[in-house]
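Quick illustration, no need to memorize.
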Amino acid sequence: MALSFRDCQAWRDEGLSLFSSSNEACKLYDAILTQYVKWTNDETLGGIEGCMSAIQKADPDFVMGHVIVTGLELISTTSSPRLNERLSSAVRRTVELAGSQDISPREKLHVKALELFSRGSFLKACEVWEDVLMDHPTDMLALKFAHDAYFYMGAQIPMRDSVARVLPYWKPHMPLFSYLKGQYAFGLLETRYYDQALKVALEGLSLTPEDAWSVHSVAHVYEMKAELDEGLKFMEGREKDWQVSDMLASHNYWHWALYFIEKGQHEAALQIYDTQVFRRCKASGAMLDMVDASSMLYRLEMEGACVKDRWRELLQVTQPHTDDHVTLFNDLHFLMVSLGADESGAARRLLEGLQELAKKPGDNEQHQMAENIGIPMCKAMMEYNQGNYNQALELLYPLRYQMVHIGGSDAQRDLFSQLLIHTALKSDNKRHQKLGRCLLVERDAVRPNSPLTQRLMKKALALHV
């Protein structure tokens, strides 16, 4: 393992001691953490998967090795411990190991957070990671796990403040220091501090031009301000830098395509979908890539583009996850694909599975929210798909200020705002059509000069509401 990664003593020197006598295991822990933060599989290290295999051989009883390996699988949301016995067993094994060793209080908290997250208690897991950060503000694993979990909850302010609290303790010489800029910028933009977010993200890029998360934060700012030409120029100018982050490249291409969708340039967007987003999604099977592909096709279809064959191709990737129900956000995107591909059986199965879990949600916060948010949103999408716009609007409109809780970013959830507007405009109820126009005026106020809003306004005016 490369000299640059931290061994047992280096972690101790930073006040982040790891209970292992294996320098190799401690360096591999650093290698996995580094790739996670950079959103990159480093082939010279064997990628994250290769490092995960190696760390378990270097020290099979290394608790923090188990925490990072199992934690990354959980945080990816591509597998449900409820259905995946191997993953569930890995969580139990980590807890057992922690109970049998003289590990530090910080390491014990990491294990506790892991177990809570595995049960779907995302908020409680975040509270434990914040406990870690209170005493150990430079613990990047706690910070990054919390950052991702807040994202899944749509907890925008905690996501911002979690990074703000630790920033003063980080110094430029520390490993991964520059990557905090992108994380903080993302929290800022999700709480509408666009100018500050842009400044912080660009500071990150001045330190590390290949930081794909900082690029992603800039892309969001241009998206939310409808500064489309600036966004296109930025993404194209930086493509060679962020392309190397294989775990985030597809998402950044998705952002690039959103500018084209906003401009009404559907063919340009579809070219990015075909050559980058779907190709990468099929190869990676990563959840972020799947939801991006689903969301892109749904937006294009609402805009009137024909994407039928693409739905069927995408269904092959998403269908194995129909029963997962790890997050409502994922479920809603899988539903889009089932409906788009005319797979009513898969759509019904997804809804019925969610209804069953909502009856006895236990500690699982996502399943607790299913009854009041997830299930009505699923039903609304199904009604919309069948042309029952009145019923779809009656289900969707009361949820508009609660949708943030399904997680994701403002840019990702904008799809549901667009769906609500399309539903209102397509309804034959004059009050609904009038509501659609009100929603467009509101949208124009927060995102002026959006061509998409202007196109929809023309449609609304044609209804003589």
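The CA atoms of residues 105 and 340 lie 49 Å apart.
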